[in-house]
Amino acid sequence: MDTLLLARLQFATTTSIHFLFVVVTLGLVTLLVGMQTAWVLTGNPKWERLTRYWGQLYVINYVLGIATGIVMEFQFGLNWSGLSRYVGNVFGAPLAIETLVAFFLESTFLGMWIFGWHRLRKGVHLALLWGVALTAYASAFWIMVANSWLQNPVGYEVRDGIAHLTDFGALLTNPSLGMAFGHVVSAALLVGGMLMAAVSAWHLIRRTPDFLLFRTSLRIGLVTAALAITLVQGFGFAQFGAVGSVQPTKFGQGPEAQALVAEWTARFGPGDYAPPVLANVGLGFMILIGLALGCVWLLLPLLFRDWIIRLRFPLWLTLLALPLPFVAVILGWIAREVGRQPWVAYGLLPTEQAVSPVGAPVMLTSLIGFSLLLGTLAVTNWVLLARHAARGAADPALGRPPAPSSEPARPEPALF
Q: Which GO biological-process labels does this protein carry (predicted)?
């Protein structure tokens, strides 16, 4: 079996599963910030209950998502030593910044937020959640900086067969970055909004006692999803111009693409420099799903009349639409990453030169092992999310006041 194919399958498996955790985390934390801010400003206990309920789901997804991220780092080091050796001086800079932001700042803020309930002042506790959200967005930004450099290498020079960073500012102004980052962020908001709306719809279908509470979260989720799908479509279609200018071979074989292929043939030898058909297939289905999700605007009448909310049909539509944004983000990732082939760094480093010199049996073993581990983490995550979501918002464990101690107070020992 081909080692390169196995390495690419392993990369696709680890990054796509991890990406599902990322979009849920990024989407939910934005909604949490809004709900806790409303609680601090208004003092309405409804917002506290909503923050605790959705915050508990967010924490579950975050913790297991960190585990999938660690697995992804392992497969990078094991399978793509050629990438690290050739472009590590450039590609590693934004990844190092992202690691400091995500694994130090974000996790520190989150830990203090989790254990700071009823121990910190409301304003300080809210500031911690704002810190979690801002560092989450910063983490996503630096990941996209690194990914955009692979899509369109800029600000570097090759010395002694190794790429060296010469212009850090060029990484931040990469034409492949801006619209892609906006597309990813809006897709995460779409996922978070649809998840909140779907879980709320499920509770309303079951006629749980907290009707008013889940009516509120249903409205928040639907409004977020409706606004986000508009941004997703806008940033998505706007990328065609930017991608066409920096990756002429991605979506067609025009004169620019043919000239680029001739240049590559002279530098790297003859070969197939057209991206696989899978990239365009993923792109096509992603566009169809994105257009279908635009119909979420038709569900907005649920915001205005309780009798419409009590109808099961629109609630069932909301619930059944939940998988669509998750499928769309995976298809979008396939279109972006597979469309770059046969390059790891577009026009600079062929994929076959980036893979580690590992035998096919070893690569197959790691593929099976990582896939089973990540699959277990994903299933565990969704089981825990479903279980805690089904319990309702009566008394979530997150933010629960400490129980008063039944033991009598012990006298302080005398010092003299």
A: aerobic electron transport chain
